[in-house]
Amino acid sequence: MTEIRIEFDVDENSVSLNVTDGIVRVRAATPGEAAEHVVDLWSTSIVFRAGHRIRVQVTSSNFPRWDRNLNTGEPEENATTARTARQQLFHDPARPSRIVLPVVPAP
């Protein structure tokens, strides 16, 4: 499982407000191999103030908000073995990562 959390409105003191998050379950990912995953982050709207930033978090779990993920591929309802997960994001010409954030211009 991969969970993406977009924390918008990170202010000048690095205080962030969690606006939205989404989840997609990924099975049998091969380490070092790129794969595309589309995560629905729902519809939302926010105004960015000058000096503020966007924070993106990619994790393999967000328990108890989402079902637990022990990172073994066992069925979640009776899994007993846990394994540490490593998230790897690629951002090079052959494997460009991206987040699409539509912009609505002010009237």
List the helices and strands and how they pair.
Elements: E1 2-10, E2 17-24, E3 53-59
Antiparallel strand pairs: 1-2, 1-3
Any overview of this molecule?
This protein is mostly beta strands. The chain has no helices and 3 strands. It has a 3-stranded antiparallel β-sheet with strand order 2-1-3, with no helix packed on it. A hairpin with a 6-residue loop joins strand 1 (2-10) and strand 2. The N and C termini lie far apart (40 Å).
Q: What's the helix count? A: 0
Low-confidence stretches: none
Order of helices and strands: EEE
Q: What portion of residues belong to β-strands?
A: 15-25%
> Which strands sit side by side, in order, in the main sheet?
2-1-3
Distance between the termini: 40 Å
Question: What share of residues is helical?
Answer: under 10%
Using only CA atoms, what is the Rg? Answer: 16 Å
Oligomeric state of the chains present here: single chain
Largest sheet: 3 strands, antiparallel
The overall pLDDT average reads 78
Name the overall outline: globular
Short description:
The chain is mainly β. The protein contains no helices and three strands. A three-stranded antiparallel beta sheet has the order 2-1-3, with no helix packed on it.
